[in-house]
Amino acid sequence: MLQIKDINHVLYRHPDLGVVERFLTDFGLVVMHRTEQRLYFRGTCSLPYVYIAEKASEASFGAIAFAVESLDDLHQASRLPGASVIRALEGPGGGQYVALHDPSGRRIELVHGIEAVGTLPQRAALTLNSAHHKQRFGDVQRPGKGAAQVLRLGHAAIGVQDMPRHLAWYQQMLGMLPSDLVVEEPDRDRPSAAFLRLNRGSAWTDHHTIALFQAPKDFVHHVSFEVQDFDAQCLGHEWMTLQGWSPFWGVGRHMLGSQIFDYWRDPSGNLIEHFTDGDLFNQDSPSGYTQACDASLYQWGPPMSVEFFLGGECAAEQTVPRSTSDRQRRS
Ligand SMILES: [Fe+2]
Fold it and tell me: Where does the VOC domain start and stop, copy by copy (predicted)?
């Protein structure tokens, strides 16, 4: 079985890289490298990039990439049905990849050997005083305004028409484990949503790295990036709003995985999420079964829009920051 280390990066295609650069910078990513066709964005972690924006005539999703533990894993992957040969990656830090396709044809890349870079400075997590657990004495709380610095890519959520095939594929090909399944009793074998984590043995890993949900068509619903803490998320929300971007849904707390969430729609119409304070599971964590209802989606937060399940698909037109529209109107 392949040893998947972590989710590594995603690739999206956009018709306007300029406005996407502005959006993702306000979102808390940093341009690491640029070519004529691509922008490589990094977080504060040691990966040279976690998001690739590629110039294209139409917006589309490109790929989800996972890092594998060893070159031997890449060789194993290259022998899987439909896999590519091992090829060189184009981006900063080099490395190699094997391309696979999941049952709906979505490109999944397995990468290895990308050279790490130095981490970026990041505000330390705040020391919180809860009612009965005081831990900050004689010190003040001043996190400072600004974008929510993105640490790393955390997960992708995917709408699928054929849940059983996708569920089997992600478990059999990538070794993922079900953390939570949303089911209609008594039909436990046909979940309407599945939250899958990496198998990292006894090490703790995110509650889900891939989330699948039954949908009328196959599409990537959103990708999600981790930020430092709740204050970073709320300050980031305020920052995005001040820059003219309209919030999509958040801030709130999910049920399955417990993350505090905040969703935005990028200029091409894709959903992108900030998250913090998610659950960590390991190989011994049992799978949970939950009945489908709004309460299975979030514990608190603003009312959920029906557009949420449509993801980026509901965006018929590009989203532009209000200030840009204002400037265009004035000129
Ligand atoms: Fe998410």
Answer: 6-113, 152-277
